[in-house]
Write a structure and sequence with these properties.
Blueprint lengths: L10 E6 L5 E3 L6 E3 L4 H5 L1 H19 L9 E7 L7 H16 L4 E6 L6 E3 L4 E3 L1 H12 L3 E3 L31 E6 L5 E8 L5 E4 L10 E8 L16 E8 L4 E4 L3 E8 L2
Helix pairs in contact: 2-3, 3-4
Length: about 270
């Protein structure tokens, strides 16, 4: 495509379905089983996104025309862990963050399947656990990417680079948390999204450059009691979003276990 069909397409499409708890052996070309922590497991899908980042950088060296940015990448199918539970939602949110980091060339991502956003029987339906995390980001994340820096890098890869292992692991330099930040379209709200894919509370030191904000902010906390918590038709939801105010002037945040948090900071 890049060599012989330049000018006849606007984007390249890719599908991404990494298998759970398996790795790709570069020598044999086969998958092998691995044991992973929850955080490593949650990183499998965002790492698949990161492998495309590596590939794109290599493509640009071979085809410098790509540096102009007119050709994009569409992840027009992607999914990981087809069970509808809190564990899967943590992976989905971390994948969102990896997409957001690379919107310079990743222009679209379409989850498989949209029916996964519902839990239903023959006569009833509700928004599923997975559907709620899509709704959370759709309603409460911003549209203008903001850079996130930190002094706690993600761990170095433990597998050979190539195949399903990117050159560096996905995630922000805020290990063990994964952060993404954005501004609302009007520039009046800075949103900090924090995924804690561990079973313990984590403390996050926080600071902003060039954004003055009010003393009170709003937190949208998405969590449940267990990794397999889920929302089902006819039952009380186990995974919920709780809204609360927080001290936006504090220099640290206490991030609850097994959670996705969207913190809203409001400009003065």
């Amino acid at each position: 495509m890049l060599k012989n069909s330049w000018g006849k397409f606007d984007a390249l499409a890719t599908h991404a379905y990494p298998p759970e708890n398996k790795r790709f052996d570069l020598k044999t070309g086969k998958l092998f089983d691995v044991q992973q922590s929850l955080q490593e497991w949650s990183r499998q899908m965002p790492n698949r996104v990161r492998t495309m980042v590596d590939a794109w950088e290599d493509y640009k060296k071979l085809f410098p025309e790509l540096n102009k940015g007119s050709v994009k990448v569409f992840f027009d199918e992607w999914a990981f862990h087809f069970q509808d539970d809190l564990q899967g939602c943590l992976a989905v949110a971390m994948t969102f963050h990896e997409f957001f980091r690379h919107t310079d060339f990743i222009d679209m991502a379409g989850y498989t399947m949209a029916t996964g956003w519902l839990d239903f029987n023959r006569t009833q339906s509700i928004i599923s656990t997975r559907g709620r995390v899509f709704q959370l980001y759709n309603q409460h994340f911003g549209s203008i990417p903001i850079a996130v820096d930190g002094n706690s890098p993600q761990p170095a890869p433990q597998y050979p680079i190539g195949g399903d292992q990117p050159r560096v692991n996905s995630g922000s330099p805020t290990y063990p948390l994964d952060l993404s930040a954005s501004l609302s379209a009007d520039g009046k709200t800075l949103i900090l999204a924090v995924v804690n894919a561990t079973e313990s509370a984590q403390k996050l030191q926080i600071g902003f450059e060039g954004f003055k904000h009010k003393p009170l902010g709003k937190n949208f906390n998405f969590t449940g009691p267990r990794v397999d918590s889920r929302n089902q038709v006819g039952k009380e939801p186990e995974v919920v979003v709780r809204e609360s105010q927080f001290n936006a002037k504090a220099d640290s945040l206490e991030v609850t276990p097994l959670s996705i948090n969207l913190y809203h900071y409001y400009a003065v």
